[in-house]
Amino acid sequence: MGEEKSEFLKGTLDMLILKVVALGPIHGYAIAQRIQQISRDFFQLQQGSLYPALHRLEDRGWLKAEWRTTETGRDAKFYGLTPRGRKQLGTEVENWGKLTDAVALILRTAE
Amino acid sequence: MRWYQRFFRRELTERKLDAELRFHLEQQIADYVAAGMPPDEARRRAQQEFGGLEQMKEECRDVGSAHFVETLFQDVRYGFRQLRRSPGFTVIAILTLALGIGANAVIFSAVNGVLLRPLPYPNSNRLAQAWSTNPHTNRWGDWVSYPDFVDWRAQNKVFEDLVAYRTWLANITGGDHPEALFAVLASSSLFSVLQSQPLLGRSFLPDEDKPGHNRVVVLSDALWRSRFASDPHLVGKAVVINGESYTVIGIMPPRFRFPLNLPEGLPAPSAWLPLGLDPSQSDRGSHNYRVVGRLRPGVTVSQAQADMEAIARNLAQVYPADESLGVKVAGLEENVTSEVRPALLVLLGAVGLVLLIACANVGNLLLSRAVTRQREVALRLAIGANRSRIVKQMLTESVLLALIGGGVGLLLAFQGLSLLIKLAPSVQRLHESTVDGRVLIFCSFLSLATGILFGLVPAFQASRTHLNEALKQSGPSRRLGSGPRLRRMVAVAETALALMLLIGAGLLIRSFVGLSNVDLGFNPRNVLTAMIMLPESRYSAPNRQAAFFKEAIRRIEALPGVESVAAADSVPLVTNDTGSVSVEGQPEPTLDGVGIQAERPKITPGYFRAMGIPLLRGRTFTWADNEISLPVAIVSEAAARLYWPNEDPIGKRVSESDESEGRIVWRQVIGVVGDVRQDGLADKVRPSVYTPLSQLPMPFAALIVKSRMDPSSLADPVRRQVMAVDKDQPLFSIQTMQEVVADSVSNRAFQTVLLSLFAAVAMTLATIGIYGVMAHSAAQRTREIGIRMALGAQKRDTLRLVVGQGMFLALLGVSIGVIGALALTRFMSSLLYGVKPTDPMTFIGVSLVLAAVSLVASYVPARRATKVDPMVALRYE
Fold first, then answer.
1. What is the ipTM, given to two decimal places?
2. Dihedral (CA of A41, A44, A47, A49) sign
3. Which of B499, B609, B714, B825 is the most buried (most CB within 10 A)?
4. Structural domains for chain A
5. Which residues pair with B673 in a beta bridge?
């Protein structure tokens, strides 16, 4: 993965993870894949940022973790959203909306 | 999982983290293989993408709160190991910190005990003192007349209640020996205002204030124990005070004390009696009482002040005696501690500076250790530790040091506090100071703050280590970026702080020397004083009082070794009677519109001889000057100069009687004597007008015995002679005059000794600091010096090079210190006598001393540097 490609804006990684996890319990590798697919390869998630972020969100009580067996019969750590995490996601999405609207507004009118 | 679960199940957590990351890796490989890559290639690529596994794990661990506690334990364990590894450093650092923190704990205990601790009465913050003020003559100080008190009490809306009280010297007899009783006469509201109740029995009833109902007494626990052997049935029994019978109604708890702010040298009161005064019979002009009140809840001192002022204005219009009187209200706590507050705060500041210097020294030690540990830090950085982790670990180490130092310091504080209490016996409430919870909290906080303060700089410095450079170096490294500069700055700061302390101590020492050289006006050598109080019940006739003293003096004079004996109602530096003096044919002498207070001692004929006060003109009193002869007086030089400038005072007439007493008795001046410091060594000499005790008899007097040898051996013979005159007559406060003089400056001695001690510690620490920096810098420049000498530099040049650098630092420190001292010493001006806070002698002298000491501290390492063999130095690499 090229390092120059695209850095996450600070704080957006947490929101994206919460969003992906909100769809249902999922393990770390799948989260990375999902983000990459949905963003059409725009975001290339590095493990170096993914796992610390997952542990951080878990420590804050927004994610809960559970060991389960995958379809291929392997043990993996599945992350799910806690009620507090769901609330947090709501706030972050709302903030994000406001932010992008504001930025878009500036870009439009300042021309 | 909760953090503590994670903490206790660390192994499991580690394994799970490992499993999670491995799963990711293998999943990736599987995907690559599925996409058609050869397995080997897939594994290599996945691993490459995955990056540093250990570093990622470290970051994952870092996020948890368990991690904080966990690494803290790790760091503490590691810190202990580090400290054990260099015991020399550890011991020096801990001792330095223990000294600094211990000294702070001691002074803080004193500040806590004296200034911060509430008074020993419930809700004492609502207690206030009120007193009459007289802007015109300033005559009454903080005393109040009884009728004024009664009006204040009836008319005010701000106090729940007020109490008026005065001290009373009496004798308690019955039992095997007579004993002087130091008692308090108070209105019956005393115990309700203080919200304090007896342990046994009851307090005063409201009715017991009335004349005739006041024959009751509440005793102190100490008196109950010492004189009545803790008799549990004492309440209800009668005791004999001044020859009259009083019923004991209560015994106070051991810790009860009232009043708290008594003149120095007086014992704690041991009995409280109702005043039993009829307000209508009392004179509004005689101000004999102190007043304490309990403010209503929510009323502030300034509200009380406003209300009382309105009452005082009212009274001033109604009563001529109150015409020019105002009133002042002040919190009792503030009033009790006002005298010692400045000294304690200066000492607290000083001891804070000592701690700063101790911090600087330990910080310096840590900086030099940081140099040697640079490789360790670099190695840890290289294998994946992040910098904040390194800073945290270094800080843990220094906080650990500070906490151990604080613990040892606390042990020192227990010792130091008892020493301090012995040093300053007369500081109010100091003897009750203890190392209590508040001191412990203060100490812990101080240790933590200290550890962070002296640890922060070396820690950040270590974390800024440049990996490559540090790892490349073979031996202990030489070029260390900002290290040496930092250490030099610390040395400069230490010097500046030490200089400030030294100047403070120097000013106090100069004040003290000045005070010790003050001409007392009397000769305290071989003089014994003992006080005596003749009860009015048996000595109501004035001539009986005079006869008692005459007979006692005659008997004591006959004792072997006694030179001369006298009695006086005033003893210099102990008791005095000040008031206004009228001069015949002159208006009342004033200074800036305020009446001049004069000393008015009543004495027996031998007084001037016994005290060694020189007679300058005329004659002294004789026993022939008695109640039926011509009223006479002797004036001091200052009085003569003030009342009759350029005139002969002999034959002029003065009067010490108050106008309020109705008639004026004019006294003819028969002699002039030398001036005496009656009030205190630091106070101005006041004019004195002496009168014969036999013309103005007093129930209270001090016996003054001048002997040919150490007078303390005379205490018992003198007591026996007094008891031979009257077997019920006790003596109290038996002291030599030399003790009296020493006591009068004991508080100053205490401040001076303590501040000098702190300054000495500060100077020692600062010298060690400068020496350390210079020695280190000289050692680092060994190679450079070797080259210089190989190229032909003389020893003298090398010496100048190193010493010059040391002196530059010292002078920089001294300059900063002088500026700091100029800013700070004015806060101690109330502690000084005869020197200005900016006394140039002290500033210059102290700066020179510190500069000289720094010269030595940099000369020693400089000399060592010049002894280096150039060849050895060059081969040093």
1. 0.80
2. negative
3. B499
4. 12-109 (1.10.10.10)
5. B615, B636
